[in-house]
Design brief:
The complex is a heterodimer. By secondary structure, chain A is mainly α. Chain A has 10 helices and no strands. Chain A is elongated. By secondary structure, chain B is of the alpha/beta class. Helices cover 36% and strands 23% of the residues of chain B. In chain B, the strands form 2 sheets. In chain B, strands 6-7-8-3-9-10 form a 6-stranded mixed beta sheet, sandwiched between helices. A 4-stranded antiparallel beta sheet of chain B has the order 2-1-4-5, covered by helices on one side. In chain B, helix 4 packs across helix 5 and helix 6 runs parallel beside helix 7. The longest helix of chain B is centred in the last third of the chain and has 18 residues. The N terminus and C terminus of chain B are likely disordered. Classes of the chains: A mainly alpha, B alpha/beta. Chains A and B meet through helix 6 of A and strand 2, helix 3, strand 6 and helix 4 of B.
Chain lengths: 284, 274
C-alpha cells in the first residue's frame, strides 16, 4: 500500500486547500525554470563524474573501442551518403548562382568553405545523433528499467565509468573523424556536379580553393564537431540514465535525447561562429 | 514474533546468530515515507523471507541492504559493520559478501549466458580464462542448466523466465557470496516454474550454506522455503518469526494477507507448514 495514501481520503481532501494560491502560481511560474536548472546541473554533474572516472582504474579499453566502432564505423554509410548529397546540392546551388555572373570557378571554394565550417560538422552531428544518440538513450534507459544498472553496481562496477565515460570519449573522438569523412565525400559530390556535369574548369576551381581556403576553416569545423559529440553523448546518456518507469518512458527518453541534442547542436553553432569570426577572420 | 530488546547500541557487535541487523531505517521519496523506523534481524545461514503487499517498500528495503539506496536515517549492520555512509571503496568490498538475484534477473542484454555469469569474476579478479569457464560450467551443472543445448552462447532474450532466473542466480553465486538477496524471485512464473525456483533457493541455501534474504508476496513459497518470516507493512516490520508463528500471529493485516493468499487457511493449515 502506498504510505502516502494510508492516511485516508479525508487527509487528501483536507490537504488540498492548504496550498495557498500564491504558492501554486509561483510553482507554475518557477517550476519549469527549476526543472531546467536541475537538468543543466544534472548534465554537468554527470559530465564531471564521467571525466573523473576516465582517470581511475580499471581501464576497460574494449568498451571504448566498441563505442568508437558503433559511433564511427557504424555511422559511416549514412554519413557518406548525406555528405555526398550535401556536396552535390551545394555545388549545384553554387554553380547556378555563380553562373549568373560567370563566376563558376569559385564553386570549389564556396562548397569547400561551407562544408568545412558548417555543413560537415552540423550534418554529421545531426546524423550521428539520430543514429547513435537515440541508440545510447534507448540502451541505457532499458538497462535502467530492467535493473541492469543496479546489477552493475552490485558487482562494484561504476555504471558511469562502464556506460557513460566510454560513450562520451568515443563521441568526442569519432565526431571530428566522421566530419572529415563528410568533408571529403562532400567535395567529391561537388566535383561530380560542378566539374563533370557542369564542366567548370577544374584547374581554376582547384586553384581558387587552394588559395582561399585555409586550415583554420577545417579547424573550426573540427572544434565544433568535438563539442557537438560531447553534447550528443552527454545528453543521450543523461536521458537514458534518468529513465524511470517502463517501455513508454524509454521511448520518451529517446525522443528527448534526440530533440534536445539536435536543438543544442544548432543553438551552440551560432555563438561558435561569432567566436571563430574573431579568432579567424575571413581573409580580405 | 518480533525480536524484543535489540537496541541500535548492541546491534553493532558481530553476532553469531544474526548476520544483518537493521535499526531505525527511514527512507522517503519526496512526500512519500516508504520506510518508517524499520527494525529487522536476518539470521545467519537461514532462509529469511520478507513478505508484504505491493508498494510496501520491500524492494526499497532490499536495495538498502546492498547500498544501492542510502537511507535518510538509521543503521544497517552487516557482521557488526555499519554500512550506512560507507565510501565507494569500502562499499565495493562489502558488496563482495552479497549476491543479488533481481526480480527479472537483470541479465546484461549485450552478453551471452557465459559472459553474464562470469562478469563478477572478470571484473573483480585477474583469473585465467580456463578457470573462469570451469567455474561457470560447474554452476551451470549445479543449477540444471548444463543440459540445455547451446546454453553457453545463448543471449538472455533466448531464455525462458525460469532459465533467466537460474542464470541470474548463477551470476550471483559465482563469487561465492555469504549473503544472497532475492527480489521477488517467483514473480511472473507459472506454478511449476515457481516450484522449481523455490527448490533452487532451498537447495542453494543448503548446498552453499549462504544466508538467504527473499522478498516475496507469495505465501505458498514462503511456507515451502522459509526458515524465518518477517512481514513488512506500511514501511515497518509488524511481525518476525517462524512460518508457524506467522500462521498464528493475531495481527489483522497479517491474517488477511495469509488468508487471501489461498496458500493456507487458519482453520486447516496446509501440509506444507512446518
Amino acid at each position: 500500500m502506498n504510505p502516502a495514501s494510508s492516511s485516508g481520503d479525508h487527509g487528501a481532501v483536507a490537504a488540498a486547500p492548504a496550498v495557498p494560491v500564491a504558492v501554486r502560481i509561483l510553482d507554475w511560474v518557477f517550476g519549469p525554470l527549476l526543472g531546467f536548472l536541475a537538468s543543466v546541473g544534472g548534465h554537468i554533474m554527470l559530465l564531471g563524474r564521467a571525466l573523473a572516472w576516465l582517470f581511475r582504474p580499471p581501464f576497460r579499453a574494449r568498451l571504448f573501442f566498441d563505442q568508437m566502432e558503433f559511433i564511427g564505423v557504424g555511422s559511416l554509410p549514412i554519413v557518406m551518403l548525406v555528405g555526398l548529397f550535401a556536396g552535390m546540392v551545394s555545388a549545384l546551388q553554387a554553380v547556378l548562382a555563380l553562373g549568373m555572373f560567370q563566376q563558376e570557378r569559385w564553386v570549389g571554394f564556396g562548397v569547400g568553405v561551407s562544408l568545412a565550417r558548417e555543413l560537415a560538422p552540423v550534418f554529421t552531428a545531426l546524423m550521428i545523433t539520430a543514429r547513435a544518440g537515440s541508440a545510447m538513450a534507448t540502451e541505457i534507459g532499458s538497462m535502467r528499467i530492467t535493473e541492469q544498472i543496479d546489477a552493475l553496481t552490485t558487482f562494484a562496477v561504476s555504471p558511469v565509468q562502464y556506460l557513460v565515460t566510454p560513450r562520451i570519449v568515443a563521441a568526442v573522438i569519432m565526431l571530428p573523424i566522421m566530419t572529415m569523412v563528410f568533408n571529403f565525400v562532400g567535395l567529391l559530390g561537388g566535383y561530380i556536379i560542378a566539374i563533370e556535369m557542369y564542366h567548370v574548369d577544374f584547374g581554376q576551381a582547384a586553384a581558387l580553393y587552394r588559395s582561399w581556403i585555409s586550415s583554420s576553416d577545417y579547424v573550426q569545423g573540427l572544434i565544433k564537431a568535438t563539442l557537438f559529440g560531447l553534447t550528443m553523448a552527454l545528453t543521450a546518456c543523461y536521458q537514458g540514465f534518468n529513465t524511470r518507469g517502463g517501455a513508454k518512458e524509454v521511448g520518451l527518453s529517446t525522443t528527448r535525447a534526440v530533440v534536445t541534442s539536435s536543438v543544442l547542436i544548432l543553438i551552440l553553432d551560432y555563438p561558435m561562429i561569432q567566436i571563430f569570426s574573431v579568432i579567424w577572420p575571413f581573409k580580405k | 514474533m518480533t525480536e524484543p530488546g535489540h537496541m541500535a547500541g548492541d546491534a553493532g557487535a558481530r553476532d553469531q546468530r544474526w548476520q544483518i541487523r537493521v535499526r531505525g531505517l527511514n527512507k522517503s521519496f519526496g512526500a512519500q515515507h516508504v520506510l518508517r523506523d524499520l527494525d529487522l534481524d536476518i539470521e545467519r545461514g537461514k532462509t529469511n523471507i520478507i513478505i508484504g503487499g505491493s508498494g510496501q517498500g520491500k524492494s526499497v528495503f532490499m536495495k538498502h541492504l546492498m547500498g544501492l539506496l542510502a537511507p535518510d536515517s538509521g543503521h544497517i549492520f552487516v557482521d557488526g559493520q555499519d554500512i550506512v555512509g560507507l565510501g565507494d571503496v569500502a562499499m565495493g568490498k562489502l558488496r563482495r559478501k552479497f549476491g543479488m538475484v533481481f526480480q527479472y534477473a537483470a541479465l546484461f542484454d549485450s552478453m551471452n549466458v557465459v559472459e553474464n555469469i562470469a562478469f563478477p569474476l572478470l571484473e573483480r579478479y585477474r583469473l585465467p580464462r580456463a578457470e573462469v569457464l570451469e567455474r561457470v560450467r560447474v554452476l551451470l551443472r549445479k543449477l540444471d542448466l548444463a543440459q540445455v543445448t547451446g546454453i553457453e552462447d545463448k543471449s538472455p532474450a533466448e531464455l525462458s523466465g525460469g532459465m533467466r532466473k537460474r542464470v541470474g542466480l548463477a551470476r550471483a553465486l559465482i563469487d561465492r557470496p555469504e549473503i544472497l538477496l532475492y527480489d521477488e524471485p517467483t514473480t511472473g512464473l507459472d506454478p511449476i516454474a515457481t516450484k522449481n525456483v523455490d527448490e533452487m533457493i532451498r537447495r542453494t541455501a543448503d548446498e552453499f550454506g549462504v544466508t538467504s534474504v527473499v522478498i516475496s508476496h507469495d505465501m505458498a513459497s514462503t511456507f515451502r522455503i522459509g526458515d524465518r518470516v518477517s512481514m513488512l507493512y506500511e514501511g515497518g516490520i509488524i511481525m518476525s518469526g517462524t512460518p508457524r508463528e506467522l500462521l498464528h500471529a493475531p495481527h489483522p493485516v497479517l491474517r488477511e494477507f495469509v488468508e487471501t493468499s489461498g496458500a493456507v487457511h487458519f482453520d486447516r493449515p496446509s501440509a506444507g507448514v512446518p
